Each structure stands twice: as structure tokens, then as C-alpha cells.
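Reminder to self: C-alpha cells first, then the designed residues, so the page reads top to bottom the way the pipeline ran.
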């Protein structure tokens, strides 16, 4: 490990960045340095722009995929190397504004009905019933299910934050049935390796298999269930601020995007066209004369 890599790693550890973020940042900087075959200390903003152009034009990466690269380079040069570079030295492409595809209540029901495994059903039902991220589902422990207070404790979610979410009475029944069947000791959903939790890739695989069995054509991922959780809460009258707390969003603006996809709330608004007086009926044109 080079001294610069060690310094950057220490800087990230001091700031308590998530382990996945640390690994991603180191990989991004390593790829950047290998491309130019020089230490990042010897490179300048021109090389940063050339690298981003290469990733976009040659590697065909989507704008959203460049975020980790830019975050890693910003951290390296601004924090570790203490370069006085502006945001313009790390041009961030504008992401296209796309709305997620939302499952209806009936589709969520059909999806769950297509899951034969009790463990997979409990796992994916927990993702929807509590609006959890895939990593949060994977790292749940049995002691995080508090049936006395009817809450689920989420330990060290995104941005290293703990939070509580509601424990649905129906979900509690499912989790109790699963617990009596599997008797998990530490991790609520253990993986194939003893002592380790289930992996996110295993959760995605279970979700994809259930989608195929259900026959639903919409794309379904564990994050789709989280989107459905927030949208369904909003459509049934839950306050946006409360949804923000349940979702663990840092900014209210992140939660507010669900206002655009809560169709039963937004699209149920009366159009001003319906408030206009009914116009006089359009007279029918005169019938054409018959000549035969």
C-alpha cells in the first residue's frame, strides 16, 4: 500500500465513512491512477476532466454511475491532498430525472403470494412493511425486533445513522412463524456462511425469482418495495415529514419526490376544466342531400 493510499484510507476512517464507501473510493482512485500510469499527486484537473470524458465516451457509463468517481476524486484532492480546487474541477453531469415504477397494492400482494420460501417471504415482506434498504434488511438481528414497543431498530443505516421504524402486526406474525421454523440465533436472516448475514445479492436473487413466478411485468427489486412503501404511505395520507423519518432520508427534498408519483393523491386532484360551465352542445352538421 502506497503512503498516499494509506493517508486517504486514514482520512476516511477518521471521518467514519462507511466501509463500502471506503472500498469504492479506493478502487476509483486506483483506476484513475492506473489509466494515466502516474501517482494522483502528479495529476491535475485536466486529467480529471479527461478521465471523466473517457468513462462517459469510451466506457459508456451513465451519468449516475460517475457519482462515486467524482466523490472519490473530490475527497482525495480536497481532503487528503488539500488542493484548493473548485467544483468546476469535478464536473458532475446532470442526471436525467426519471420516476421509479411503483407497484400497486394488488401487485405487492401477488408478488408476496408467489414466494414459496418462508424465509424469503419474511425477508421481502420486511423490506416493504418497514421501507428498509437492502443492506438494512440483510443486517437485521433478532434482537432488533421489539414486539413490546412494536418497532424495528435499524442499526447504522445509510450515513451511519440509527433509527426506529414501525413493526406491522401482520409482519410480526410472519416473523414469529419464520423464527419458530428457522430459529435464527444472531442475524435475523443468516447467510450460507456460518455467522454471517445474508448477502444483498442473495436478496436480489430471491426477489427476481418471485417476480418471475408472479408474472408481474413491472421491474421489481428490493428497492422497488421501499419505493412502494413510501408511495403507499403518502397515498393513504401520511405526512411527508413522518415518511422522511421512517425512510431515514437526510433531506426532506429526497422524500418529497414521492409527491410526483403518488398518483391517487396527485392525479385525483380535480382538473379546473371540470369547474367550467358546460358549453352548449355543438350542433350537428346538416345532412347531405340524397341523389340516389
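Designed residues (292 positions):
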Amino acid at each position: 500500500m502506497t503512503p498516499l493510499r494509506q493517508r486517504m484510507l486514514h482520512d476516511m476512517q477518521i471521518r467514519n465513512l462507511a466501509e463500502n464507501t471506503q472500498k469504492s473510493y479506493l478502487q476509483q482512485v486506483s483506476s484513475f491512477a492506473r489509466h494515466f500510469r502516474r501517482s494522483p499527486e502528479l495529476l491535475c484537473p485536466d486529467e480529471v476532466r479527461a478521465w471523466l470524458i473517457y468513462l462517459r465516451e469510451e466506457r459508456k457509463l451513465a451519468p449516475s454511475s460517475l457519482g462515486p468517481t467524482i466523490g472519490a476524486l473530490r475527497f482525495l484532492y480536497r481532503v487528503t491532498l488539500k488542493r484548493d480546487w473548485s467544483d468546476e474541477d469535478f464536473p458532475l453531469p446532470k442526471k436525467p430525472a426519471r420516476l421509479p415504477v411503483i407497484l400497486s397494492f394488488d401487485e405487492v400482494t401477488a408478488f408476496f403470494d408467489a414466494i414459496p420460501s418462508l424465509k424469503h417471504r419474511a425477508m421481502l415482506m420486511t423490506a416493504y412493511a418497514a421501507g428498509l434498504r437492502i443492506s438494512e434488511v440483510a443486517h437485521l438481528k433478532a434482537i432488533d425486533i421489539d414486539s413490546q414497543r412494536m418497532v424495528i431498530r435499524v442499526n447504522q443505516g445509510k450515513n451511519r445513522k440509527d433509527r426506529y421504524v414501525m413493526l406491522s402486526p401482520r409482519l410480526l406474525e410472519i416473523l414469529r412463524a419464520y423464527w419458530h421454523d428457522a430459529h435464527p440465533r444472531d442475524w435475523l436472516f443468516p447467510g450460507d456462511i456460518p455467522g454471517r448475514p445474508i448477502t444483498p445479492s442473495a436478496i436480489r436473487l430471491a426477489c427476481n425469482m418471485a417476480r418471475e413466478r408472479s408474472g408481474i411485468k413491472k421491474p421489481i427489486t428490493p428497492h422497488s418495495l421501499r419505493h412502494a412503501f413510501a408511495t403507499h404511505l403518502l397515498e393513504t395520507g401520511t405526512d411527508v415529514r413522518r415518511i422522511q423519518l421512517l425512510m431515514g432520508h437526510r433531506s426532506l427534498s429526497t422524500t418529497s419526490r414521492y409527491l410526483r408519483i403518488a398518483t391517487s393523491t396527485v392525479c385525483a386532484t380535480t382538473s379546473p376544466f371540470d369547474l367550467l360551465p358546460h358549453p352548449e352542445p355543438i350542433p350537428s352538421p346538416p345532412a347531405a342531400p340524397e341523389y340516389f
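The chain has two domains: 3-89, 105-265.
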